[in-house]
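Continuing the series of single-chain predictions for the mutant panel. This is the parent chain; the variants come on the following pages.
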Amino acid sequence: MGSSTAVTTKVASGSPYQLDNNQVQRASSALLRHINSNQEEKEKNASKKTLIGDDDESDAEDSPLHHEAVWLVFTTKKHVVDKNRLKPGKISIPHSLNSSPSLSICLITADPQRSMKNVVADPSFPQSLSSRINTIIGFSKLKARYQSFESRRQLLSEHDVFLADDRIIMRLVQTLGKIFYQSSKRPIPISVAEIEKVDGKRVKKDQKKKDNREKESSFASPAIVAKEIEKTLHCAPVHLAPATTAAVRVGSSKFTPEQLAANVDAVVKGLTEKFVTKGWRNIKAVHIKGANTMAMLFGLLVNSLEDKNNKKRKSTGDGEKLLEGNKKSKKAKSAEEEDEASSAAARKEKLQRQKAKALEDGDDTSNKKSEKAAKSDSGSGKKKRKSTS
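Parent structure:
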């Protein structure tokens, strides 16, 4: 299933790279065919029912109503973030992941929870949205009611999506614990606070109100709250950790290849523009995969064009530097050669003088030796004569 065809092209304006939509759509089609064929095989195998009945959870997963999630996995050259970001980010996508009318939403709000319940129960709040909000719970009641691990796990299994008031989102980390924050159902932040304005400008709250924000929390109008929730449901949540690999859910097996490709394109753009440091320059590869499939590499996102240009620039720049360096080195060498030549000539002249002096000294010593030898010869002749006489 793997493919190493590049899926980036250089454009005249904006980002120097973008996805090749044809290539992404081909990869999406191949992955969806693979997932659907596997699901059909599971449904055939599940047709042999046991005597227990149809209440088994695995039976629900094998039913045609079950749709497998599709994930976009991107690999970077360097860590995306320095530490865990427990507050999810959001990327708007054209095709919602939460369009099912049977979707179960749990809304966690700042206190008092009764204010939010009144907002959702208001006649101006859309009925299609309020029917999917099954639970509204305030932060203080959440802390009191869900203290045990088992109760939190039950809460996690009862709902599909958890939305949390942006004012208390970070305090949920300790309250809900790792059972939530190690899953894909981490609470997604929504801005539902009432914004006080005077002459079109926001009013800053004093320190007392900040300290007592739980007791004095106020909520926006039903229309604004509904719009914020709908907007969040049309986003793909982004969970980032200090690693070179991250995954974002971009669709499901019920999507068409065109819908999946459109979501992939939106998520990749959002990641490179908002979340990934240095954007495309930090992206190494992109895969798509199902929940139970191998990751499918639909393209290497190596910045080959830019790298080649940089290499050419570096090579030409290095060549110019080498030429300049050679010129400088030649000048330096010529100066050094002149110095060496002059010093060699001085040494040669000095050696010649020493040699001439040595020769003169040799002649003097040889003359002295010859005179001594002559004297010694005359002395020996006299002694010989005396001995013969």
